[in-house]
Each structure stands twice: as C-alpha cells, then as structure tokens.
Specification:
The chain has about 120 residues and is mainly alpha-helical. About 55% of the residues lie in helices and about 5% in strands. Strand 1 and strand 2 form a beta hairpin.
C-alpha cells in the first residue's frame, strides 16, 4: 500500500503524473521516483519540470501573466476565476460585437477590459 507523503500528493494529485511519466520527464529511474514518493526530497529542477509540464506553473511571457495557471481544461486567473476556451471566446465575442444593438456600450466594455489588462 502506498504511503501518502507530500511528494506523492504533489506528483499524483497535484501534477497528475504517474511514476513512469515522472521518471521519463525528469530523466530519472522509476526507483528514484518511488524514493521521492517515500519521502526523499524531489530535486527543485524536477519539481519545476513537473509543474511546467502539467500546467501547474507557467513561465510568464510578461509580468501581466504572473499568477495565471492551467488546471485541466481551465485557465485560472490569480483571483481564482476559471476560464474555458469557450468562455474566453464568448467574452471576446460580447466585447467585439454589438450584441445589444448598443455600440456605445460595447465600446465602454472594451475600454474597461483594456484598463483591467494594464
């Protein structure tokens, strides 16, 4: 039976990686990953690789993306808001089109979103 350690929780539940996937990703043996699961420290570079490979940590292109992350099908904002690709497309559509027959309202929404993005 698998002992539940912080490393095991990190690898399996947070990153969603199997022992084999982790070994391949980090260029380590399966037995090394099992030792991490048992409590040996995961090297920082391997921990970072695991986070980057599974979207748990992003390398922001610009400071505007600091704190954003991926989790499964979601892009998660620093405030915890979850966005699917469909939701982002719907937001973009609402902003770029005159869905209410009110171009002034669409312009105000675009301006407001542009200010938030700065």
């Amino acid at each position: 039976m698998q002992k539940t350690t912080k490393n095991y929780i990190f690898r399996w539940f947070q990153c969603g990686l199997t022992v084999e996937e982790t070994a391949k990703l980090c260029f380590k043996s399966v037995s090394t990953v099992k030792k991490w699961d048992a409590g040996r420290p995961i090297p920082p570079e391997c921990r970072l690789l695991m986070q980057l490979a599974t979207g748990r940590r992003t390398n922001p292109i610009t400071p505007d993306w600091e704190g954003w992350q991926f989790s499964g099908p979601y892009l998660i904002s620093p405030e915890g808001l979850r966005f699917t690709p469909q939701r982002l497309k719907a937001l973009q559509y609402a902003v770029n089109t005159d869905t209410q027959g009110n171009p002034e309202r669409a312009r105000l929404i675009r301006e407001r979103l542009n200010r938030v993005g700065r």
